[in-house]
Amino acid sequence: MTWMQIKHNLLFAFARVFLTIKPRRSATYQVFGGDNSSHQLGAYIGRQGFKKLLIVTDKPLVDLGIVQQVLAGLENTAVESFVFDGVLPDPTFSVCEQGLAVYHDNQCDSILAIGGGSSIDAAKLIAIGATNSGDLLSFAAKKFKEDPAPLFAIPTTSGTGSEATAGAVISNDGDHKKSIISDDRMLPKASALDPLLLTGLPAHITAATGMDALTHAIEAYISELNFGDCREKGAAAIKIIFEQLPAAYENGADKGVRDAMSNAAYMAGQAINQVNVGNVHAIAHQLGAIYGIPHGLANAMVLPHVLKLSLTAARTELTEIAQMVGCNTAEEFIAAVTTLSERVGIPATAEKLNTKDFDLIVERAVAEGFGYGSPHLMTAEECHGILNKLLPQ
Ligand SMILES: [Fe+2]
């Protein structure tokens, strides 16, 4: 056993004790689902007595009319809304500072995120800054003291699961290195999973975000931490995604399919909220930071390779998952993941990858992976090997 493995085992022995004493929440306080559930959430926010709601979103969702569709649900309430639509993919601390300024300028008392993981994660950090002094970057390194401002979430993709998690991934402005900020108090107070907001989602985004949700579900299921109902939620999500993702990709206008996928993404989010993600995310975060590869796409490309690394340590769990989706063995399941990726148009290799960056990617990915409960502790050599497989042939 290497020194790294000994340190990792000690760390996770402590983590198990900590999680036994203080388990992570597995659900938001209130979830609205089905057609026009975003309006139900709007009415709920009104009933809670909030008066000035900051909307955290991105310009494309404003241009597509999605934000206006949601805001129509506030018309018969006393809630006034103020839109910050400056969120960009992989939001930075400075983007969040801009949103926080809109919150303070309008003396808001609550926040509603409308969007994918970028908007929901940015809103989580803005909510912390709304009630705690200090610049937002400081919360990457220290615990915040006061409870964040009340946060609500409406996901417009079925992937990130951020509406069900107590964490946010925010990028540094300079080097785009990602910081993970996590605290149970960051969990949204309520969410709406409204399929009517998802029917126009482009096929390539449906594919990438759906594979992100699948990665969450698998990484939670095989996590050595195995706390709470992470396996039940992960298993349910895996089955739905295998059945429904091709249909969502091919016929995104089908509300029933969109409803199923948003529930799967939510359950996968609940699963990682209890045991966190794993080595797939440890690598994918670096590919996003350095090359801007969309998060779900990076996960999808890395996923089969990391699963092969986990075959020995997680054969039992991978075989269980295999049988859920009609395969016999762990190897067959990994092949089925690759087939699913291909079917929804995910490439096997990354054009942007450059070997000159490999040492940096490996250093950061191995360090990040050390803190996850992946069944196999990834070495630098193994990470290098995966990156080589992602190079265009
Ligand atoms: Fe993810």
Give structural notes.
GO terms for molecular function: alcohol dehydrogenase (NAD+) activity; metal ion binding. Belongs to the iron-containing alcohol dehydrogenase family. Residues 206-389 form the Fe-containing alcohol dehydrogenase-like C-terminal domain. Keywords: NAD, Oxidoreductase. Residues 31-195 form the Alcohol dehydrogenase iron-type/glycerol dehydrogenase GldA domain. The protein has 393 residues and is an alpha/beta fold. The chain has two domains: 3-23 and 203-390, Dehydroquinate synthase-like, alpha domain, CATH 1.20.1090.10; 34-197, Rossmann fold. 53% of the residues lie in helices and 10% in strands. The chain has 15 helices and eight strands. It has helices at residues 3-21, 37-47, 59-63, 66-71, 93-105, 117-131, 203-222, 230-250, 255-275, 279-291, 295-309, 315-324, 330-343, 358-370, 380-390; strands at residues 30-33, 52-56, 80-84, 110-115, 151-155, 167-171, 178-182, 190-193. The strands form two sheets. A six-stranded parallel sheet has the order 1-8-5-4-2-3, sandwiched between helices. Strand 4, helix 6 and strand 5 (151-155) form a beta-alpha-beta unit. Helix 7 (203-222) packs antiparallel against helix 8 (230-250). It is globular. 52% of the residues are buried. The mean pLDDT is 94. Fe (ii) ion binds next to helix 7 and helix 11.
